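the two lines:
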Amino acid sequence: MSETRTALIEIEDLTVKYPGRRVPALEHLQLQLRAGETALLLGPSGSGKSTLALTFNGLIPHSIGKLQSGHVRVTGLDTRQTTVATLAQRVGILFQDPEAQFVMFTVEDEIAFGLENLCFSPDEMERRISESLRLVGLTELRYRRVEQLSGGEKQRVALAALLALEPEILVFDEPTANLDPQGTREVFNLLRRCKETGRYTIVLIEHRLDELMDLVERMVVLGKRGEVIINGEPREVLRTHLSTLQELGVWVPQVARLAHALQHHGCSLEPFPLTLSEAVEALKGRRALSAGQQEPSAPTTSTAVHNDGHQRFSASPPTRSEPDQGEAAIEVCSLSYRAAGRQVLQDISLAIPRGALLALVGANGAGKTTLAQHLIGVLQPPRGRVRLLGRDITTISARELTRHVGYVFQNPEHQFITEAVEDEVAYGLRVMGLPATEVQERTRALLERFNLLSLARASPFTLSHGEKRRLSVATMLAMGQEILILDEPTFGQDEYSATALLELLWQLHDDYARYVPGSHLRPVCGRHESWQAALLRDASSPLRSRGAAGRGASDAAPAGSASAPAWLVRSAHPGGAM
Amino acid sequence: MQVIYQEGESLLHRLNPLSKVVAVVPVLLFVALTTDPWLPLAFTALASAVIVGPARISPGTFWRLQAPLTISLLVFLILYPFMVRAELFDHTPVVLRLGPLALYQGAVLAGMAAVLRVYAMFLLSLIFMLTTEISDFIRAMVQQWRFPYRLGYGILAAFHFMPLLQEEFRLIQAAHRIRGIETHGGVRVHIERLRRYLIPLLTSAIRRAERTALAMESRAFGALKQRSYFRRFRFSRADYLFILCFWLLCLLVIALFLLNGWMGPLSFTKEL
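prediction for all of em together
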């Protein structure tokens, strides 16, 4: 009984439909969240996580969508009978895209905006603005223009604007998806602070939460049809349902994977660890138990846990034979580039042999995309700086270049130029002047390989994100280029489609092509036989490049680099190691 | 959005945006009606003085911002006398003769009048544009002139889109080039190419607009008929004083021209 009394969000038999869609976004959903609780909401993309968030603050059904059945009660108020104005003071939602949340031009005005909408008096506004700025630690940026802020600061301002409305419930809808590691850290720290005040009930929708798992008190997993399939205490959920989660393709903490893998090999950790430090503790405990039996052999991966709770890893390089010598596919020779008064690239030198697979890693703004754009003529390098397949790039015409280099942009939609999936693939082949029958054959084969055959007649813009990405890779491969460059190929994809795409890339690489992926989730490390990595430092020369230039590898993780620890653990990803 | 607005703390920056509109617009309309070159020239000087004087825009910045227009107007000024129908001005003395081409005094003066009129109007509007933040202008309109607030704040949100769309356009262009899209060709190829840009551009613009709308509504935008204001826009004494002074100054110039008979007819009195 006490459960229902303190339930802050109560959802009963909720079915939500958007106009023009045949299938409901949420179906017969039941959920209760208690006051002060922190819940993690998981689910594959398209399972209705964001939709659920919008039912909390009444935008569904008041602005969009329709409640076909059931009801939502927030702080005891039925959202159907409560105005958005009232609910906005109960529920604050921090969205994914910091840019898309701003209306005003300065920090102060932006925070005032919500308060003005609710007709607060200027005195009250003043109090709340300074209070919320203090909470997010941005008091000194009060009069700053929002476009001058970093991504992390923007999200903090957006959160301050929500906190000013003094909500009881905070929803974080993938607030770090567009942020670099530094910004992510800022937002996570702030989230931790919100939690510590004890004032808020928090709902998290996130993909990469390794650092925050200790805050989560409940895990709610939505299925493909938008129903709750798992709901429980995280330790229990991860211990018993890991395989279900992985089948769904949702994010799972790396540590949970590790624990399961260890368990598989007869080494179960107690208690089941959710965070790295818990895992370390549990492992230490085990070692104490088995002390004297055997000295453990030196680990190949060293791990350091810092006081601030985040970790740094350094992986030893995979042993591999040197790639066959000979003409490099891509050769960059002390390339520098300045834009808008900023040194973006400084004295970059790289040599990538044919058949190599290179991961280009570095923080946001380190120049990954800029470097890649020099390799395809989007940016023009000076003569003698970039050589492709033995020829200076400045001597290769744009037409010819497209035949040698394929480039997959961050947003696959940018590259679509026709109205049907099959035309999209056939386009490049037609440009090459192949006979119609061959075009048809090769198109079919490619679509089949990329599992897009059933969508051949659909418009590219109607595909799901993962399908769009696959299509953009397929179009780039149609012409059989020798070099393929992918700019953040797993950006914005859920676990399932990201893994599927990478698997496809490994396969293709085994077959013929050569890739330069630059990605946030740099999941290649230690995984593949012939991987090489070049790490770019902020606005500067490569911090290290390994294998690629034939130089000796330096094992030490570069101190002070902004590389997120999360991804390196990813190499332990069992799905990828098949 | 800071295309032309220059951040500053000057007297003019601190004025209510609407008082600048009220001061400048009638003068602008009057200048549009002039037909001789001299009165616009006087207003050109007046506006420049206001911009580098009380608006505290550095002469260098001012020069840089108006240079593109000045250059195109100079080209126009040089070509105009040769393009215009000669019989309109062949009663006026010839200033210069270049082979078969005759340069009539009347044509030169008419060209100067047209050019200076445009230039004076541009500089007068610069007084407003260089010193007024667009969000202040829209908020003042909402508060003082009953401009519908939903529309006003919608426009403000749209301003955040502009740089993003520009960036998007640049990326799409590059992406299409890599696909091997025809880069040369006639008007038809060009139109076809723009059509191809349009779909991804619109898709992302609509998606972004939807997100912004949701974020705004989540913060109770449009939930109530009324809204309060953290910063109140109203006319202060300084605003009235500025309008009065500016008008007096302009009237003084006009009076000076009228008394000395320097002023040509206005465009609606010309035919009489």
